[in-house]
Design brief:
- The protein has four helices and 143 strands.
- The protein is mostly beta strands and about 1700 residues long.
- Strand 107 (about 1250-1255) and strand 108 (about 1260) form a beta hairpin.
């Protein structure tokens, strides 16, 4: 037989052309063969498909080429060939020869099946044209399906690879909070990683992964650390853990590549560590709750939240049960939680988290060929509404695994003829464009016999899951990582039934264990891909093996799996306890077994949560306990590290908070002398400013801290060296990381401790230093991660309630809330249900009705908006259960009895019956009727279903009066006090009333509906009250029912506080009554001399008590007199101990400014001498000095010396030898002054700590208490500078500011003395405010000359000004009164301006509309006798071209209308006086270089040295001078002195991207797209807008018809911006694309919303790409008029 080996890789459509060419080349050879009388059979140069081909289409034809012409009769005779599929059987086919009779084409009548092997045999009955028989031909190929090709195992040309992962893939015993580090052969884009990596457990499903990039630089990294997020619970012991890196991870763009490369997917599988069962396995415990009926399935998974693992079981009859373990974990503690019966008999099942919600679902293969999914809703089992049609296939086995690296679990099903690959496929609704998922068969793996056992694992650790199959033979199918497989090994000997996987020799590689002829066959992995014939080591057993399981049962030694065996022997259940890597080194442990071994199955899992593996035995046959467990005993957890670091899992910052600290604690078992700490954080939201030792553990100065910070990459690390050691402890506070928020940013900033962080060339890891040896101890940081919640400044809606009501039998949900602030009038409230948008409402609304909520558990959220900034969501939940159908009627034989009947509802656990608005009875779920002996009156009944603790809306029915006498009286009337002065009435209705009347003291005060059963009264006066009710029904009025007298007490005063102020005590409290006042308040004071009483007015809420030193106790008593009775109510007590102290108040100091801190004394007696010491951080607080008014220098000693413990720490010592400090709460003892650098990295708390102090008095030296107020470095301040005033002259007062975040607005309000100053103008000209008051900004100002107030406010919608350490925000121009007295002084303060009832305050507004209160620094102004010379503070801009003409603004003081300005020796032109503080001039021509700027007035002159720089700038040439209207072309500009900030304008279109070389000789300019063609002027301008060069008609736009489809913005890229532009254009809210055809994504001649949808689908969901021209620019291949 001849096998055709030459193949031609060609598609069928091109074969005719290829064959004709082949004929032309061999025609001469054929003639030579014929003429020479050659009788050899013809050769077969190629076949299509080729022999051994894979992934062949199921509709393929078979073509065979010969080297000579063939006989048309024999070649086309079906008797001479056969075609057979391994799954589909024989395939009849028609045969035909081509025109030159050399290519035979066989066309099968029916398609092949997916994944089958096709065999084509052509016999020697086929002859040549001269009747020479061919050599028989056999061709075999595999159709598309699950078969992999050799090329599938190599990365594609557009891919890059994961090259190393730690721990290695396949390892067991990894921490239950694993830390996995992966490296790659190319750097990857960090921004692409967020959705490209997932973390999953086979019991707990999809988990939240925390990603860290230790080597990140400029947004790329080649190293990634994957951690379990700190908010997640650890994995379960023994749980299979998978980390998936998918193709969404993109590489850094490589040279020669047009696009980034995608990662070749990698799936790393691990097993979480177990504890060590020191007590072995306990006795057999039956799980009674599982019953005695045989089970075909039992598995544990996380099915209910926060309750550990639950168990799902299934019988052959289709009963599925949810079992839940008790706290003890004993077998008897398991209880039945829920149960259901499938509509069709089941065959097999698997448990997995298919939908990625972190909860397991059960997938069941049923006899009708459908896959059904069982979920848990609430605590009840339900069958999902959607079943999945498998085309009639029924699967005897189901397994799950991540087969193709798409982060979605796949299923392998074992059918009678082989395996099927089942994957979740995306289905798009063509009408709504909504995406949904369905399970479908995507591949076929033929098997030689029915599959008996199947395991999914990664045997070769290549990041692709493999299949181990027992199907007549034992097969290892190597996975290609794309859902296809290739046969790689055969198990020898072939297994008898089951195959299991584990590491039985502890080498880290997975082995295969199977039942053999006389025991077990152990196939040891050769540390790589197993060989083609994978031989085994035999282990004898006492009898035939019925079932087995492999896993780490005892945990000792770790990472070596034990083998559990069920055998047909005297000891049916035994454990081969593995002791070492040597298979012979094992201990046989017998377990007491009860039941039928032949129908039993084994499962290894931790059933009781003690971290040890238990043995669970399931009985498939009935008659005994269907489940039993042998639990591990005395489990010891060896995962506890000798050193663990912990951080909070979450920190929530109050709105407006910009500084905070992350505390770090440690748990350790040995004495330590130091720590190394490394932390990674989200630099886009927060910034680290330092790390300090935690003062709760370490006394000040006891630890040397060296900190290293990489702000750009969000890294901080520190070494903490203890001067001594710290003993072992648990959760010991060791350090605090000082952080500040990034201005104007909100969200969730993640942080975590991470190892291997590189900062400034040093690698940092988390470690401790052993005090005994100095050795480094690695810290366990697996749970040391958290998130900082940076909250919106917009307050969230409050008191949100979800109330379910029923309208016409339809359930509705009423949402009610309160608005704490005024939300936007338009779109100020947004409502969502389950995350889906419901409604947008005016910000004045406080309720919403969802009229179509559906059923089930519903989550609602309400969000408020202020200036478009959203609040946090307020949420509430509602569970809507279907309403039953209720019928009620009187029993005709006894009209007093009313019979109720209703309809059953699935999932109902109980029924609640109500009569006339009151609860009557709760009945079991099985009862669907109730007889009520309720008399002859009319009644309204209501029946509610109870499911999962929630009730449905009520089904109601009304029974008419049947002759009842009169109206029945309400019963059980009770009056109950609520709090102090509120009262609630409750009662029971005895029939269906028309109304209920409420009486107080015999007077009717309310009329209620007939179904009401309670009434509340608020704000009652103290004293007795009497209430009664009366019902009105169809029988008239009932009797008046009284509740009895209730005495209402007087509400007591609350919130009493006492605070010492010197020798006095200030008291404050809140009076209890809300609607009236006390008649009198009595203050009781108890002190050293006894108790005194102080009478105050009934409205008093504060009092200052001038007492001296000592301990004082206070109580406030309120009195109220009514009807001759005195009512009293006392408050709680407060106590104050007044002592002497030295202190300072909380102080804000500002970057770039001087500071003052007053050291004060609370003195009970006058002091004549005093001293104190302060330790402070000299790195922040510089040039520190001390002044004390009234103390001579000879009586003052001040020293300021370094402490030496760490750089910058200093101690200031102040001693007053002689002086006077009077009695008082705030006597000034000293004033400490200094300054700070203009450096925003200094923000936050700064060390300023009183460490010692003494007071000298007439009675001796005292040791006062020391109290720090705290010093904080602020980055937000407003200030004005002092200056002199000249009577009759104008003065400009500049309001300057410091701000550490971008601002979109600010307000400045000044208070001044109107008898001295008159405000003439408020302006922001020449300030940063001009940057905000443009197209989208507004400037407001106001002057109140009588009150002496003026303000200026700037606000912008879109613009922002960046952080600035000092800049002008506005100026206030004043006229000094002509009669102002020389030598007088006046203060200009920051105040509040009343603008028609709206108070304007001094504040900053950041980019998310949060308001910031700056620190305020007013100034004193003194009236002088003569005008002062000018001052020049700044100019802007500071550079310009040497040709002159640059407009420059000069800021200073003392400018006059006669001012002259000089740039170097040359006078400026066009000098304009704006005000005495502002001049605007044009620069004269000058020479290259820096020059002085001088202002000359009649009162003097001032010079700002080297303040302006002239540069020579010439544009010599540029190319090109023309371009397409839609082409992202770059222009190259050459010249001299080209300035940074160059602007290039094409006509009226400015380039969006201009880059200037550092030497100023070249620039690159992105040519902007133009909507029109033609010649335009080309202008070059500097950053200030001064023209450098103009080229009239210097550029020509043309339309060459070339474009890139999808690049609607003409920027050379296809991205989300193009989707947005298409959508805006179609909606009529955006401009038309420059080339309309670029937006016609599907090239159908029209631009519509479908184009935006298709482009978005291609970008994000792998949809169809745009039509040509794409992916390269070109012309439209289908001219269609666009």
């Amino acid at each position: 037989m001849k096998i055709a080996e030459n193949t031609l890789p060609a598609v069928a459509q091109g074969l005719t052309k290829l064959a004709n060419g082949f004929v032309a080349t061999v025609a001469v050879l054929v003639m030579v063969f014929a003429m020479s009388g050659c009788t050899n059979p013809p050769e077969v140069p190629f076949t299509v498909p080729g022999n051994g081909a894979s992934n062949v289409e199921v509709t393929t034809d078979i073509q065979i080429a010969f080297t000579t012409a063939m006989d048309p009769i024999s070649a086309t005779d079906p008797a001479n060939w056969s075609i057979s599929g391994s799954l589909s059987g024989p395939h009849p086919a028609a045969g035909a020869l081509n025109e030159d009779l050399r290519i035979l084409t066989l066309v099968p009548e029916t398609p092949f099946q997916q994944g089958e092997t096709v065999t084509v045999v052509v016999t020697d009955g086929v002859k040549t044209g001269v009747q020479i028989p061919i050599d028989p031909i056999t061709i075999q190929f595999t159709t598309v399906g699950a078969g992999a090709g050799a090329g599938d195992f190599e990365p594609g040309s557009g891919e890059f690879s994961l090259v190393q992962i730690t721990p290695q893939a396949g390892e067991s015993g990894v921490p239950r909070r694993p830390s996995i580090t992966a490296s790659f052969d190319l750097p990857f884009q960090v921004t692409s990683a967020a959705g490209a990596v997932s973390l999953r457990g086979d019991k707990t499903g999809l988990r939240t992964a925390q990603l860290v990039f230790p080597t990140q630089t400029n947004g790329v990294s080649d190293l990634m650390q994957v951690l379990l997020d700190g908010s997640e619970a650890p994995f379960y012991p023994g749980e299979k853990v998978e980390v998936v890196f998918d193709a969404n991870l993109l590489s850094q763009l490589q040279n020669g590549d047009d696009d980034p490369r995608k990662l070749s997917p990698f799936v790393a599988s691990y097993r979480a560590a177990l504890g060590y069962a020191t007590g072995g396995l306990g006795p057999r415990e039956a799980l009674v709750a599982s019953g005695s009926q045989g089970l075909i399935f039992a598995e544990l998974g996380e099915l209910l939240p926060y309750s550990g693992l639950e168990m799902l079981t299934m019988t052959a009859s289709g009963t599925v049960s949810l079992l839940r373990s008790g706290i003890s974990g004993e077998g008897a503690s398991w209880a039945l939680e829920s149960q259901l019966t499938l509509p069709v008999l089941p065959v097999s099942a698997v448990l997995a988290d298919l939908d990625g919600d972190g909860r397991s679902e059960m997938v069941v293969s049923c006899e009708d060929g459908l896959l059904r999914v069982i979920k848990v809703l609430g605590q009840e089992l339900i069958v999902d509404d959607i079943s999945h049609d498998m085309g009639g296939l029924v699967f005897s086995l189901l397994r799950v695994g991540e087969l193709n690296g798409d982060q979605s679990l796949d299923i392998i099903g074992a059918a009678s003829d082989g395996l099927r690959v089942i994957q979740s496929t995306v289905v798009i609704d063509p009408v709504t464009f909504e995406l949904s998922r369905a399970l479908a068969v995507t591949g076929v793996l033929p098997m030689p016999a029915p599959t008996e056992s199947l395991e999914i694992a990664d045997f070769d650790r290549d990041g692709r899951l493999d299949l181990l199959v027992s199907a007549g033979v034992g097969l290892l199918l190597r996975g290609a990582g794309n859902g296809t497989f290739l046969e790689s090994s055969f198990l020898e000997p072939a297994p008898f039934g089951k195959v299991v996987v584990g590491d039985v020799n502890g080498d880290g590689w997975l082995d295969a264990v199977t039942p053999g002829n006389e025991g077990l066959s152990v196939h040891l992995n050769p540390a790589g891909a197993p060989p083609l014939n994978w031989a085994a080591v035999s282990l004898l057993t006492a009898g035939p093996v019925l079932d087995l399981a492999v896993g780490e049962v005892d945990g000792d030694p770790v990472k070596i799996d034990d083998i559990l065996i069920l055998q047909d022997a005297a000891d049916p259940l035994v454990m081969l306890r593995r002791l070492s890597a040597d298979l012979a080194d094992s201990e046989l442990v017998s377990l007491n077994f009860a039941g039928e071994a032949s129908t039993a199955n084994l499962l290894l899992v931790d059933t009781d949560g003690d971290l040890g593996t238990d043995v669970l035995v399931r009985q498939a046959g009935g008659g005994s306990d269907s489940l039993a467990v042998w639990r591990s005993l005395a489990v010891v957890d060896d995962q506890q590290s000798a050193l663990q670091f912990q951080v909070p899992s979450s920190l929530s910052l109050p709105a407006g908070t910009n500084t905070f600290e992350i505390p770090i604690t440690a748990t350790f078992e040995d004495d330590l002398s130091g720590f190394n700490i490394a932390l990674d954080y989200d630099e886009s939201l927060v910034t680290a400013t330092g790390m300090i030792a935690d003062s709760a553990t370490f006394p000040f100065g006891s630890v040397d801290v060296v900190t290293s910070i990489d702000t750009a990459n969000g890294l901080i690390a520190a070494s903490l060296q203890i001067n001594g050691f710290i003993p072992a402890g648990t959760e010991v506070p060791i350090a605090r990381v000082q952080m500040q928020t990034v201005p104007s940013e909100l969200g969730e900033a993640s942080f975590l401790l991470a190892d291997g962080l590189s900062i400034q060339g040093t690698t940092w890891s988390n470690q401790g230093t052993l005090a005994s040896s100095g050795a480094l101890l690695s810290a366990d940081i697996s749970s040391a991660q958290g998130v900082v919640l940076i909250n919106s400044a917009t307050a969230a809606p409050e008191s949100l309630q979800c109330e379910i009501s029923s309208s016409s039998g339809q359930a509705e949900v009423l949402l009610t809330w309160s608005n704490p602030v005024g939300y936007d009038l338009q779109g100020g409230i947004e409502i969502r249900r389950g995350g889906a948008f419901l409604a947008s409402m005016s910000g004045t609304n406080t309720q919403y009705v969802d009229t179509s909520p559906g059923q089930g558990s519903l989550n609602y959220s309400v969000t408020g908006f202020v200036a478009g900034v959203p609040s946090a969501e307020s949420t509430c939940n509602a569970v809507i259960i279907p309403t039953t159908n209720l019928n009620c009627e009187r029993v005709q034989t006894n009209l007093n009895t009313i019979q109720l009947n209703w309809v059953s509802l699935p999932g109902t656990s109980a029924w609640q019956v109500y009569r006339d608005g009151g609860f009557l009875i709760e009945l079991p779920a099985v009862q669907l009727n109730y007889a009520d002996n309720a008399g002859l009156q009319s009644h309204l009944y209501e029946v509610r279903a109870v499911q999962g603790g929630v009730t449905s809306a009520g089904a109601t029915c009304l029974v008419d009066d049947a002759g009842g006498a009169g109206t029945a009286n309400p019963s059980d009337l009770q009056a109950t006090l609520i709090g102090n002065d509120n009262l609630r009435l409750t009662w029971t209705n005895e029939e269906y009333y028309d109304e209920i009347r409420v009486f107080e003291g015999g007077v009717q005060v309310a009329t209620l509906g007939g179904l009401e059963i309670e009434y509340e009264v608020s704000d009652l006066l103290p004293g007795p009250v009497n209430y009664a009710i009366q019902a009105l029904g169809d029988g008239g009025l009932s009797s008046l029912i009284e509740a009895g007298e209730v005495n209402v007490p007087l509400a007591a005063p609350t919130n009493l506080s006492c605070q010492a102020t010197g020798a006095a005590i200030d008291l404050a409290w809140a009076n209890g009554p809300e609607t009236f006042s006390y008649d009198e308040v009595v203050l009781e004071r108890t002190g050293p001399q006894g108790t005194d009483f102080i009478n105050l007015a009934g409205t008093a809420t504060s009092y200052s008590d001038p007492v001296g030193g000592g301990t004082w106790t206070y109580r406030v008593v309120g009195y109220f007199f009514r009807d001759g009775v005195s009512y009293s109510a006392p408050s709680g007590q407060c106590e104050v101990n007044i002592t002497e102290r030295i202190y300072y108040d909380p102080t804000d100091v500002v970057v770039g400014r001087d500071f003052e801190i007053d050291i004060l004394g609370q003195l009970l007696t006058a002091a004549n001498s005093w001293s104190f010491q302060i330790d402070y951080d000299g790195n922040v607080l510089e040039n520190v000095a001390v002044t004390i008014p009234g103390v001579a220098s000879a009586d003052l000693l001040v020293t300021d010396n370094p402490l030496g413990t760490f750089a910058g720490l200093r101690r200031l010592t102040v001693e007053v030898i002689s002086g006077t400090a009077p009695v008082g709460a705030d006597s000034l003892l000293a004033r400490v002054t200094g300054n700070l650098e203009a450096d925003f990295s200094l923000l936050g708390p700064v060390l300023f700590h009183l460490v010692d102090g003494s007071l000298g008095t007439a009675s001796g030296t005292q040791s006062p208490a020391l109290e720090d107020g705290g010093v904080t470095v602020s980055g937000n301040a407003l200030f004005i500078d002092s200056a002199g005033l000249t009577p009759g002259e104008e003065i400009v007062v500049w309001a300057r500011g410091v701000w550490s975040q971008a601002l979109t607005g600010y307000s400045v309000v000044l208070d001044y003395d109107p008898t001295v100053l008159t405000c003439l103008e408020v302006s922001n000209v020449g300030t940063v405010g001009e940057d905000l008051s443009g197209t989208f900004g507004l400037f407001f100002s106001g002057i109140d000359p009588l009150a002496g107030k003026a303000y200026g406010s700037v606000i912008s919608t879109f613009d922002a000004i960046p952080a600035n350490p000092q800049a002008e925000l506005g100026y206030f121009r004043f006229l000094v009164a002509a009669d102002a007295q020389v030598g007088d002084s006046t203060t200009i303060n920051f105040g509040i301006y009343d603008a028609d009832g709206v108070e304007i305050e001094n504040l900053f507004v950041d980019s998310v509309a949060s308001t910031i209160d700056p620190v305020l620094f007013p100034a004193d102004f003194q009236v002088l006798s003569q005008p002062e010379p000018p001052t020049l503070l700044s100019i802007s801009p500071i550079s310009g071209p040497a040709v002159g003409g640059t407009e420059v603004i000069l800021n200073g003081t003392g400018f006059t209308s006669g001012s002259n300005v000089f740039f170097g020796p040359n006078p400026a032109t066009d000098v304009v006086l704006i005000d005495p503080g502002t001049l605007v001039v044009n620069t004269p021509a000058g020479s290259e270089g820096s020059v002085d700027v001088t202002v000359l007035t009649e009162y003097g002159q001032v010079t700002l040295a080297q303040a302006f720089n002239y540069y020579v700038s010439n544009i010599d040439s540029y190319t090109p001078n023309e371009g397409s209207i839609c082409s992202p072309t770059t222009m190259l500009v050459n010249g001299v002195g080209i300035p940074e900030g160059l602007q290039v304008v094409f006509g009226d279109l400015a380039s969006s991207l201009v880059q200037v070389s550092p030497d100023g000789t070249m620039a690159t300019v992105r040519i902007p797209a133009s909507p029109t063609t033609g010649i335009v002027d080309l202008r070059f301008l500097d950053a200030a807008g001064t023209e450098i060069a103009v080229f009239p008609g210097g550029f020509n736009y043309f339309n060459d018809g070339v474009f890139l489809r999808g690049d609607v913005t003409c920027d050379g890229l296809v991205n989300i911006a193009d989707v947005a532009l298409i959508a805006a254009y179609v909606a009529g809210s955006g401009s038309a694309p420059v080339i309309l055809d670029s937006a016609d994504i599907d090239d159908n001649g029209a631009v519509h919303i479908g184009d935006a949808v298709q482009l978005a689908s291609w970008l994000f969901d792998g949809g169809a790409p745009p039509a040509e021209p794409f992916p390269s620019p070109g012309t439209d291949p289908t001219p269609d008029g666009l």
